[in-house]
């Protein structure tokens, strides 16, 4: 299989630490990946980890067992743990652009992105809300959907980084139907689930209690579930959010469509935060990411847990294999 492309992420965060730790954990059995990063930065983090600068992704598999393959991308200024510098924003953005280009060209099996600091990039003129929207623009304006994947649960938030007030205002039947379609297609194409089962969460307590506790479940969400079912998608709901994440309930579906960010991420992170993976559905390329941020507070202390990045790399490889089979 072609290697995975791993971006540098925010240089002042924990991305470099977990990159080196992920290579140490995966060097024997893979999947093989290469880092688009500054070799000097990585060497400064842990000089004991051998690095292998490469000219292209094709060199990575043969070098992977002995050293971390690095496709060099120099920083403007040396990175200081916990102290982001906007002068390095161009390299952070460039790593993402390069990884996507390699995936589009068929030279990388998937893109795995280390965490970025959106605030730092905004200060440097970055015009996108985050990774997902930037990836959509780079791949031709696709309609991406964020899915969080853990060992016991997959969740899809219909609205993401907006206030709860704004999230409720944004909900409509067409949005739920659109994301439901993309979710079902992604689960079938990239996860090999022949007929994905989607459970749709309600918005209000008790899913509105037949309108007594809010009209959105009856007037917006239920029609969307009916529309998805009419298209042949196995969708059901809306379900009361306080009971749909129990072990018994989770056994009845393959992914949960949730109405807002925390409704999706609280159960997933409660069940297993360390192994959660952010997956972007609906793109022509595959993309995964650790389900955590830059962790400036612990950067440089050797305390970063690479589990989520390792899970993201493994899942990206699994999805790439499944997508190749489905092609």
Structural features, described:
The chain is an alpha/beta fold and 327 residues long. The protein has two domains: 1-142 and 286-327, Isopropylmalate Dehydrogenase; 145-282, Isopropylmalate Dehydrogenase (3-Layer(aba) Sandwich), CATH 3.40.718.10. The chain has helices at residues 15-26, 39-45, 60-63, 89-104, 118-123, 131-138, 164-170, 173-191, 216-230, 247-250, 261-272, 307-326, and strands spanning 4-7, 33-37, 51-53, 68-72, 111-112, 145-149, 154-157, 197-201, 234-239, 255-258, 277-281, 287-290. A twelve-stranded mixed beta sheet has the order 3-4-2-1-5-12-11-6-7-10-8-9, sandwiched between helices. α8 packs across α9 (216-230). The longest helix is centred in the C-terminal third of the chain and has 20 residues, at 307-326. The protein starts with a strand and ends with a helix. The model has no long low-confidence stretch (mean pLDDT 94).
Compact summary:
40% of the residues lie in helices and 16% in strands. The protein is an alpha/beta fold and 327 residues long. The chain folds into two domains: 1-142 and 286-327, Isopropylmalate Dehydrogenase (3-Layer(aba) Sandwich); 145-282, Isopropylmalate Dehydrogenase, CATH 3.40.718.10.
């Amino acid at each position: 299989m072609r290697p995975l492309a791993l971006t540098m992420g925010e240089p002042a965060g924990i991305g470099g630490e977990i990159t080196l730790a992920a290579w140490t954990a995966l060097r024997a059995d893979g999947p093989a990946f290469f880092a688009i990063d500054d070799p000097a930065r990585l060497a400064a983090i842990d000089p004991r980890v051998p690095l292998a600068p490469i000219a292209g992704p094709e060199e990575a598999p043969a070098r992977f067992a002995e050293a971390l393959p690095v496709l060099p991308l120099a920083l403007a200024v040396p990175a200081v743990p916990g102290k982001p510098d906007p002068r390095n924003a161009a390299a952070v953005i460039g790593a993402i652009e390069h990884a996507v280009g390699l995936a589009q060209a068929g030279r990388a099996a998937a893109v795995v992105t280390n965490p970025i600091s959106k605030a730092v990039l905004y200060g440097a003129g970055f015009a996108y809300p985050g990774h997902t929207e930037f990836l959509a623009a780079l791949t031709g304006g696709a309609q991406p959907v964020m899915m969080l994947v853990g060992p016991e649960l997959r969740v899809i938030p219909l609205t993401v980084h907006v206030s709860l007030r704004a999230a409720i205002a944004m909900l409509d039947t067409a949005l739920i139907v659109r994301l439901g379609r993309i979710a079902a297609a992604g689960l079938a194409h990239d996860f090999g689930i022949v007929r994905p089962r989607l459970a749709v969460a309600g918005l209000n307590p008790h899913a509105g209690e037949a309108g007594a506790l809010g009209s959105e479940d009856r007037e917006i969400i239920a029609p969307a579930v009916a529309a998805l079912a009419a298209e042949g998608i196995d969708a059901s709901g809306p379900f009361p959010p306080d009971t749909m994440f129990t072990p018994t309930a989770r056994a009845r579906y393959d992914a949960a469509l949730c109405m807002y960010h925390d409704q999706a991420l609280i159960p997933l992170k409660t069940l297993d935060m360390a192994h959660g993976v952010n997956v972007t559905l609906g793109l022509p390329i595959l993309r995964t990411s650790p389900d955590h941020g830059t962790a400036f507070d612990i950067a440089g202390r050797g305390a970063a847990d690479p589990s989520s990045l390792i899970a993201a790399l493994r899942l990206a490889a699994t999805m790439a294999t499944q997508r190749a089979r489905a092609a």
